[in-house]
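quick one
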Amino acid sequence: MPEYHADLPLVDLVRRLPSNVPFVGPEALERQRGRAFRVRAGANESSFGISPAVRAAMTAALDNVHCYNDPEGYELRCALAAKHGVDVAEIALGSGIDDLLGLFVRAFAGPGDCAVTSLGAYPTFNYHVAGYGSELKTVPYRDNHEDAPALLDAAASAGASLLYLANPDNPMGTWQRQETLTVLMASIPAHCVLLLDEAYVDLAPPADIPPLDPSNPRVVRLRTFSKVYGMAGSRIGYAIAHRDIVAMLDKIRNHFGVNRIAQSGALAALQDIEFVQDVVRQVAVGRDEYASAAADVGLRAIPSATNFVALDAGSSERAEALMAALLGRDIFVRKPSLAPLDRCVRITVVLPEERKVVIEALRAALRS
Ligand SMILES: Cc1ncc(COP(=O)(O)O)c(C=O)c1O
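structure w/ pyridoxal-5'-phosphate:
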């Protein structure tokens, strides 16, 4: 941890934070290596990109980029409300789920509070919990899944104010049955709010996604344009929540934080249903391709409802060696760092021609 100048007026909480960040981006790795990656298969972006209609809308928005964006994002929120059958007052925009997670932690989990998540789960939540000075309690995965009943028990016994669960999950790609989530959502203790991160919801079996009910103030659903809509770099996501919670976010959010180009692109993306359906189909094909390539080389692909596949290498050492071999062949991938998830390497479904490169590198890595 760096030693800050003792006389800088840093708040104590920030002074004591560890200097690690949740992600080292592929750009940073390229700078360190002095070499570009051939394939970006490590950040679960959508290699399928944006639709022509979204490109046209984002390009047209440039004409007014000298004007501030609508801080209420009203048109987009109305379109989202119509898509989900909820009221516009039940939709909050943010610059990605990561931004919204920060707002919810700030609002619900300060110093002296406690938040619950799974050990090794998507790390942005933990980062915000540390940043706002609350305590983090973790629950181990069970059979490659986040353990919803154990998370609920932990939240109840710790008196937690926030419970975070990603469904489908990152880094394992697994998902919960609807019955499990229904029980979880109905049982959230009065002192707690569930943040249900549904970044990959469009890729999950529809029958397993519970209906939305923003009348319940204890459940917040988080969605994003970063995955099947292909807009990760434009930073836009949203929460579907009780109207009082949405109104509360207005007190603390960055009002111009969701930029004009992103808002226009998202609005066009919602209308281009066929494009998204095609991406969903192509991702499913890619997952199957990875699974059979993995089986050919003696690795198990964990069943996934996301745009990536976690390949089980059997041990953390083998997974580390496999990741190093893929990075060495200029394929950007990531792996979980905590046991027992760390025996896996996580590979994003990329374009068909890129998948050939990934699969060839996988075969070569395992031969050597
Ligand atoms: C579970 C999960 N939540 C949130 C995000 C980030 O979403 P956004 O780009 O909307 O911040 C990711 C990205 O990989 C993710 O895997």
